[in-house]
Write a structure and sequence with these properties.
- The protein is an alpha/beta fold.
- About 35% of the residues lie in helices and about 20% in strands.
- It has nine helices and eight strands.
- It has helices at about 70-80, 100-125, 140-155, 175, 190-205, 225-230, 250-255, 280-290, 315-330, and strands spanning about 15-25, 30-35, 50-55, 85-90, 130-140, 160-165, 265-270, 295-300.
- An eight-stranded mixed sheet has the order 1-2-4-3-5-6-7-8, sandwiched between helices.
- It is globular.
- This is Alpha/beta hydrolase fold-3 domain-containing protein.
- One of its GO terms (molecular function) is hydrolase activity.
- Pfam families: Abhydrolase_3.
- InterPro entries: AB_hydrolase_3, AB_hydrolase_fold, Carboxylest/Gibb_receptor.
């Protein structure tokens, strides 16, 4: 899409990237990337902390290594503290539904717990080890939703979370009703875009009529228009189950579930035209009511969706915001 350069992978120049499948659906492999700074070893420390990161794209588009969505500040964080980043793909809407994606989320967690130590041993020739007790989750937009969901799933196994403009209020009319919406200035798209996409996907698929089509990677953001169409036409309601509280972080908190004791950090642009800041405000208020002892901070900054695209860890506002959560992660 205009403004993005999926071929510019230079932000990863100082990192090793190892890609593997963490699950298989039929003959289709869903992948994740293990990323750490070149030259990293665990000689001077017993093992390295972990960041489990999920990408943005509205649950519809993008990829775990789509560079423009992968924050410089997060790579800086990994460098500074010798962290290992696990950046995972998952099934995508509209071919999948949210239940499928949340199943993938848990399978990422299982892979980290059961397979990451041996995977690192092999890939690093024994030089790099991981600390399964020092885990934070992170993600932007849809990835922020998944980072929070995983933190709710494992509040005793995840130290804290860092979520950027997360999609935490998926029952709001913004995501469930069709009306004129200026999303990053993209003209209103007809609902038929989704139906046409699914029909074309079905025609080109090798699956049988009763089998689901699986799509989990969009490295060039070719599906970006599908995301805009989903938002503008309120189509997310077709892929979430309104009666399943587990799909909605705010419902989970209201039902008594808890975040990690150290809480987490959310930052959000005050003029966000993709994921309105109202959702993060509602999430914060829900945490205050139902998890009042949790250290959740919502930092509202000037700008639209992705306002932090060039932010670095050395930026004063980033460093100060992260400080207590990094301390909790590494404690």
């Amino acid at each position: 899409m205009a403004g993005f350069n999926p071929d510019d992978m230079s932000r990863f120049d100082d990192f090793n990237i190892f890609t593997t499948s963490y699950k298989q659906i039929g003959s289709y492999n869903i992948s994740l990337n293990t990323i750490y700074e070149q030259g990293l070893t665990s000689v001077s420390t017993s093992s390295q902390p972990i960041i489990i990161r999920f990408h943005g794209g509205g649950l519809v588009a993008a990829d775990s290594l789509f560079p423009d969505f992968f924050g410089y500040w997060l790579l800086d964080l990994a460098k500074k503290y010798g962290a290992i980043i696990i950046s995972a793909n998952h099934r995508l809407l509209p071919e999948a539904n949210i239940s499928d994606i949340l199943e993938d989320l848990e399978d990422v967690w299982t892979w980290v717990q059961s397979s990451l130590p041996e995977f690192l041993r092999i890939k690093s020739q024994g030089k790099v080890r991981c600390d399964l007790k020092q885990i934070l989750t992170a993600g932007e937009s849809a990835g922020g939703y998944l980072a929070i969901q995983l933190a709710l799933n494992h509040p005793n196994g995840i130290r804290t979370f860092l979520a950027q403009y997360p999609m935490v209020d998926m029952k709001s009319r913004w995501f469930t009703e069709s009306f004129e919406k200026s999303v990053l200035g993209v003209p209103q798209m007809p609902k038929s875009v989704i139906g046409n996409h699914l029909a074309k996907a079905r025609d080109g698929a090798s699956t049988t009529k009763d089998e689901k089509i699986v799509e989990s990677s969009d490295p060039r953001l070719d599906r970006g228009g599908l995301m805009f169409c989903m938002i503008q036409n309120g189509l997310y309601q077709d892929y979430f189950d309104i009666d399943d509280a587990k799909q909605f972080p705010i419902d989970r908190l209201e039902n008594g579930e808890r975040l990690p004791p150290a809480g987490g950090l959310i930052w959000h642009g005050e003029k966000d035209s993709v994921v309105p800041v109202d959702g993060s405000l509602r999430f914060k208020n829900t945490v205050r009511k139902h998890n009042p002892d949790i250290n959740l901070r919502l930092l509202v900054r000037p700008g639209d969706h992705g306002f932090d695209s060039s932010a670095r860890l050395t930026d004063e506002w980033v460093e100060r915001a992260l400080e207590p959560y990094v301390a909790a992660w590494l404690a």
